[in-house]
Design a protein that fits this description.
Radius of gyration: 25 Å
Structural class: alpha/beta
Largest sheet: 7 strands, mixed
Oligomer: single chain
């Protein structure tokens, strides 16, 4: 049994007045609560007279706000101002840009908890995860402050006497950042911090269902920009739907587009950007696997799989969706996992102690239900879950039961295994040899995160080496979910090959030039070519 300990409070979908707690959160972030509509475009000034977007609380169905998106003219004007802002920012020394990011970090940190509450209110993830997401933005600003003094090029030895070669990074221009609903704050942070450190202006197009998070973040950044005498369009916000996204993707004034979303849309974005010879950073589907060996530490592995499968109600790109258990320990592991599932607190995600909040939309509930139906029709054994909740206190929200399923076959070509379902559904397969589990891990189209649980150094070596996981994140005795900002984040294959956050990700936000300098009195050609007359 999954426990309901905290009733969900709020008003019904379509209500005209805000609940007390929603009003308190929005007011704390300078978002007007009495306005019929909010402007959803910022380029140094707030505007918006296009279509109306509704922000709906997924836990209660309460309409939090109505936001006016951009018209085509407003979009065009905002993109123009972003280009002008870039021309200004590129002349600011990189360490000064780092100081700007330090101030933004301080401003975000001061509002961390209430921003986290807004993430919970609008997206639906539990309170500790909402705060943790804002902390990611704070952390990447810290990282970028240091990076602003270390975005180095290289000196390359020349074969020609009196010559030297420099590899020089310079700002790339305007960066378009299209983010998804599941991380409505952090993903912009990953891109924004590195991009500003590199000297670029940014255009943010958030998910249409999480406009308030983007408005709150933009207000904080805008105040810091204004304080430093910088144009607000360094961080332009353009809310809207598909048409806004298409305009950003197709704009030749945006040389780099970072897109986070589905594989299907990512394929369209990648082709469109490439068709105009732009650059793209794609963060797409996950479909991540954990492999449990017989020598695994169960006290660590079981809770990690539990969080990986249920955290954010299974709506992380890195959520654990496939669990491969060695046959020798499968019954013991599943018994322990099911006992954990039975203790989970479901309910109001803003209440401390809640571990399971809602799915983000009603449509997501339908996707969950369809996936469970396919599992049942295929003959899969449903060990737990497989239904929506019938508690009256949860009836206005998008709550579903976390599900553990054992499909009849572990064939990775089966759509049950090869298709990512963005919901808390964990499919289990049994294996006999590590090589078989690695083959299954690698056989799906996606390649974001993966996890092996073992205490055998030989297994570790195989897993992280050329015969091991082909994912972008290859963990050992760490779950698939919950990456830190210090390393580059991203996946391979149909996940898109993009990298954001730490590591060498910053190198995507600059244009590189090879500069050969002749400081001699002769002009010899390379490779010994003689072109003398």
């Amino acid at each position: 049994m999954i426990l309901l300990r905290h009733p969900v409070c709020g008003t019904l979908r379509g209500a005209r007045s805000l609940s007390t707690r929603a009003s308190a959160i929005l007011s704390s972030l300078d978002i007007p609560v009495g306005a019929a509509e909010l402007p959803g475009v910022y380029d140094g000034q707030w505007s918006g007279s296009g279509e109306v977007l509704e922000s709906v609380c997924p836990a209660t169905g309460e309409v939090l706000a109505r936001v006016r998106s951009a018209t085509p003219d407003e979009l065009h004007e905002a993109l123009g101002k972003s280009k002008e802002a870039y021309l200004h920012l590129r002349t600011v020394p990189a360490p000064k840009r780092g100081e700007l990011l330090r101030q933004i970090r301080e401003a975000l940190s001061e509002k961390r908890d209430v921003l986290g509450a807004l993430v919970t209110l609008e997206m639906g993830k539990i309170k500790t995860e909402g705060i943790g997401e804002v902390q990611e933005f704070v952390d990447i600003c810290d990282y970028a402050v240091g990076l602003s003094r270390m975005m180095n090029g290289r000196v390359v030895a020349s074969e020609r006497p009196g010559h030297t070669i420099l590899e020089v990074p310079n700002p790339i221009g305007v960066v378009g950042v299209l983010t998804a609903f599941n991380f409505p704050v952090a993903v912009y942070g990953w891109n924004f911090a590195l991009s500003v450190a590199a000297g670029n202006a940014n255009v943010w197009k958030p998910s249409p269902s999480t406009p308030l998070c983007s408005i709150a973040i933009t207000k904080i950044i805008a105040r810091v920009l204004e304080k430093n005498g910088l144009p607000g369009a360094v961080s332009t916000l353009i809310t809207g739907g598909k048409d806004v996204g298409e305009a950003i993707v197709e704009s030749r004034d945006i040389p780099l587009v970072s897109f986070t979303g589905s594989e299907a849309v990512g394929r369209v974005v990648g082709k469109a950007v490439q068709s105009r010879f732009g650059k793209s950073i794609l963060e797409l589907g996950g479909n991540n696997a954990s492999i449990i060996m017989p020598d695994a530490d169960m006290q660590l592995a079981v809770p990690a799989v539990f969080f990986g499968a249920i955290g954010t109600a299974g709506q992380r790109c890195t959520s654990t969706r496939r669990l491969y258990l060695h046959r020798a320990i499968a019954p013991k592991f599943l018994d322990a996992l099911q006992k954990l599932y039975a203790t989970i607190n479901v309910g109001d995600p803003l209440v401390d102690g809640t571990l399971l909040g809602p799915l983000h939309t009603r449509a997501a509930v339908g996707i969950y239900s369809d996936a469970v139906q396919r599992l049942r029709q295929s003959g899969a054994e449903i060990l737990t879950g497989g239904k929506t909740y019938d508690h009256a206190a949860l009836s206005q929200g998008n709550f579903v039961q976390p599900t553990i399923s054992v499909p009849k076959t572990a064939d990775p070509a089966d759509k049950i295994w090869s298709t990512e379902t963005f919901a808390p559904i964990l499919n289990v397969g049994l294996f006999d040899e590590l090589e078989q589990a690695i083959e299954w891990n690698n056989a799906v189209p996606q390649g974001l995160s993966s996890s092996l649980w073992t205490r055998d150094i030989r297994n570790l070596g195989k897993w992280i080496g050329p015969e091991g996981s082909d994912a972008g994140i290859v963990n050992v005795n760490v779950g698939t979910s919950g990456a830190e900002i210090g390393a580059a984040f991203g996946g391979n294959k149909s996940t898109g090959w993009g990298r954001e956050s730490g590591g060498d990700a910053w190198k995507q936000y600059v244009r590189w030039s090879a500069c050969t300098v002749n400081f001699s009195d002769a002009a010899p050609l390379a490779q010994g070519v003689d072109f003398s007359t």
